[in-house]
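Please, does this match?
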Amino acid sequence: MENYILTVGGISSLDYGIYVLDSNDEDSTTRDYESVQVDGRSGDLHFDNGRWANVDRTYKCVCMENARQNIPAFVAAIMSSPGYKRLEDTLHYDYYKIGVLKGEVVPKFSRMKDAARFDITFDCKPQKYLKIGERQITLSGTNTIMNPTYFDSSPALEITGNGQIGIGGETITIAGSTETIILDLELGDCYSKASHANKNSCVTWTDKPVLKSGINNITVASGLTVLMTPRWWHL
């Protein structure tokens, strides 16, 4: 049986002698909506909240030596900082998830030696982020970009200079910027690349642009240098 490696926020299970045997990667998310019943009317009304629900990702793992020390040490390491973390595993080399540890980790120890099997579960955002979507694209003038997925993506833009950027009919205006800035369209946040200082005052738009499924037309004003990280994802 092949042994796979799990990496959580840059912490590798390999450093603790821990390997992944399997995971429930085929479990799908659900659309988040509210169901309302109306007197005298058959069937529920559904109000779409415009989002997908989180999903559990469970890894079945094994530690073949020093399990009584290595498993708690691995869990402590990934719990040492709060919040969501990037999850990568060598079963699925083409995408990563974003999740946070959920519940307890309870090892089942072998009677013969200090080895154990255990499950570890993460509460994950619904997206499977494609690693090809992390490749930066240089934009200038008129551009055509193909979103290879069925889902709109919210890219990150690294911008130097001032002017306008058009994405799919929406316009971003950069004004008053004196340094390279990062515009994160997923978070709706803009900050200095060098100092991470808030730069939201340098950016305006009407509706937040997205890269829709299929072909997207993008224009960049002269005098702007733009690098785009498209962040393609699927479910």
In short: The first strand starts at residue 6 and ends at 8.
